[in-house]
Amino acid sequence: MEINTLAAMQPKTLVLTGATGFIGSHIVEAALLKGWKVVAWSRPEGNIRDLPSTVRVVKTGFDNPDRIVETFRQLREESGDIHYIVHNAGLTKTPHTSEFVTVNAGYTHNFTEGIRKAGIRPEKFVLMSSLAATGPGDPVSLAPLRPEDPPRPTTLYGQSKRMAEEIVEAVTTFPWNILRPTGVYGPKETDYFLMLKTIRNGLATRAGIAPHHITFLYVDDLVQAVFRSLESPVEGRIFHVSDGETYTDIYYRDLCMELLNPRAFRLTFPLPLVRMVSYISELAGNLSGKVPTLNRDKYLTMSALNWKCDITLTRELLGYKPKVLLREGLEKCIGWYRSNGWL
Questions:
Q1: Rg of the chain's alpha carbons, rounded to an integer?
Q2: What pLDDT is stored for residue 286 in this prediction?
């Protein structure tokens, strides 16, 4: 009994990939607040300067399976049991589209194989996937996307994330769950920030005439879902994650204007024009080696009319309760961007 009690009092150890990114940094903060030990698994070239000093950092690339095994064995020798693993690292945009499969799928395979070969048995492994792995919903019925729906990803990014899911679904040596968050925003996020900055500067744009049904997720609620998925006895499931509401791109644009610049000029671009610009932008990015803000993947995401998200399963099995809806979340974001000199 005393041994069991002592073991229960020991802090949990979390291995987290992608710890230096937007979502990862929030997971790190929450884990430390829970009193957990955090191991940030970073690429050799990763920028770790903003990680708290109490975080243990390992710099092992995902392209070397043998080094992954060695690193896990070393971690176990130094820190004891590894209780939880969250594979949050991934590629969301690149000028070289073949890298989507290499990084999102290939590296997931190497990482999970390294865990297996090192003999690590975490209490739970969580893969951070994306609603893009499902693909957009039916534009006519506007039925919400459910985890049990057959995946039909339309983007290269979404296809690579679905491949990563299939790799994890084949794992039998440790329990896992997969999270598919919708569009995540919050302090430190940079993509949604670009639209906020554009509106602040006086231009409020949207693509296409028909309203687009979209969903959002404040980063703190995603972090909540991560920890519920880790600590729940439920395993082997895919969970959609959003704030539980559906918005339109028109409502989103107008809300941003209300909060930032009511006098911004509204401008709607026809989808054929957006598509042409996205192709030209991607070509320019390929030639320059830079990642364009607008590309074919982004166009496919923007042009889809239905990104509704059914989180019934997430609520019922994980006890997930989203706390931040869009207006409050945007107010929090804008406050952070202003106080940190972004806006």
A1: 20
A2: 75
Length of the chain: 343
Q: Which two tokens stand for residue 339?
A: 């106080």
Q: Pairing state of beta strands 213-214 and 247-248?
A: antiparallel
Q: Where are the beta strands (DSSP E) in 123-275?
A: 124-128, 176-181, 183-185, 203-207, 213-214, 216-218, 237-241, 247-248, 265-269
Return d(Cα 95, Cα 117) in angstroms, integer. 33
Is the CB of residue 301 less than 8 Å from the CB of residue 134?
Answer: no
From the list 191, 178, 132, 124, the residue with the least C-alpha distance to 159 is: 132
The model carries a pTM of 0.94
Could you tell me the sign of the dihedral formed by the alpha carbons of 316, 304, 278, 158, in that order?
positive
Helix (H, G, I), strand (E, B) or coil at 343: coil
Nearest-angstrom CA–CA distance, 188 and 192: 10
pLDDT tens digits for range 264-292: 999 999 999 999 998 898 888 777 777 77
Burial class of residue 256 in the structure, from the number of CB atoms within 10 Å of its CB (0-12 exposed, 13-18 middle, 19+ buried): buried
How many Å apart are CA 317 and CA 335, to the nearest integer? 34
Dist. CA 144–CA 315, nearest whole Å: 15
- How far does Cα 200 stand from its chain's mean position? 26
